[in-house]
Amino acid sequence: MSNNIWLTADTHYSHANIIKFCDRPFKNVNEMNEALISNWNEVVRSSDIIYHLGDFCMGDPNRVYRRLNGQKFLILGNHDKEIKLRGLFGWIKDTYYLYYNNDKFFLSHYAHRVWRASHHGSYHFYGHSHGSLDDYGRSTDVGVDCWNYYPVHIDTLLKELKDAMSTKHHE
Prior knowledge:
Layout: E1 5-8, H1 17-21, H2 29-43, E2 49-52, H3 61-65, E3 71-75, H4 82-85, E4 92-93, E5 95-100, E6 103-108, E7 123-126, E8 139-141, E9 152-153, H5 154-170
Parallel strand pairs: 1-2, 2-3, 3-4, 6-7, 7-8
Antiparallel strand pairs: 1-9, 5-6
């Protein structure tokens, strides 16, 4: 049985100001942290793979990291301090190309209008914008603010993008 693949971004664990910046429905940072950890562990099993597309945590990342299920990989965001994160994630990169089934996915913290192979059927997942950008072609925001504070499964993302493109072509 193959592992499930999940994506997320912009959790901003232990970042109190993100609650007001993004109008998150939490009273304080502890409530936010606990809800995000619970949501993550509700869907991600220990054998699953999860790609976090940046802005993981403010403060000590180990306190949160060790409580999260899955084999975790990180794309650096603008708030991530690589020195604090070394040794935690399976790897840390600026961008990454993920191959899943017969599809290719460009993973970045930042949204791109074009990316390698964007005109040849590849997809793009990003964070950073906290839901403030509309999907563009084969790209979408995987940040927690867009997915009810949960990681999202790659098959769900693929279906949503394909459905949106199909609808757009029929208009």
